[in-house]
Amino acid sequence: MRFDTGRVCLDLVATFTPHEAIPDGDELRVWLAGAGLVPDRTPLARVGPDWAAAFRSLRADVETLVRAELLGTDTDENALARVNALAAGPPPGLCAVRDQEGHLVRELCGGVECGALLAAVARDAVELLTDPGDRALLRACAGDGCTRVYLDTSRGHRRRWCSSERCGNRERVARHRRRALAAGSR
């Protein structure tokens, strides 16, 4: 899993490209920790198929809204209503506690609830979609076959790929091959 889109809600959208990355609770646990929604030591025993289904549903709604924004088309009001309803929920509570070495670390207070984690991601989507500055930085990857969306925070805002190392490198290799083929056919 990659966490390089610039927003947690876009990282969730990216979990379907190129294949389903959160088919079950086990993979959702990995994503939740990687996205920083739960501290590393947080036990996630209750995460199951129902949680994964809820996050996939939120992912579909966020993607619908983000794509509409990118294309300049009308917003799907049903998707917007569902995201708003989730965003209105209480986010997970954070506490500072001492670890075994005596250092302060983050921990979720009151247990981990699916609704609270969904609220955190939905709230991130609402913040993204209502912030004109961030909306202006939304980009779709120009990589061949890539459908990822990211925030272009590069200097000059001319970033073309979700990842220079992946899609950018593939594009550069393909361009080199085309030039080599064209030079060889002369």
From TrEMBL:
Pfam families: ABATE, zf-CGNR. It comes from the Bacteria. Residues 138-179 form the Zinc finger CGNR domain. SUPFAM superfamilies: Jann2411-like. PANTHER family: BLL6575 PROTEIN. This is ABATE domain-containing protein.
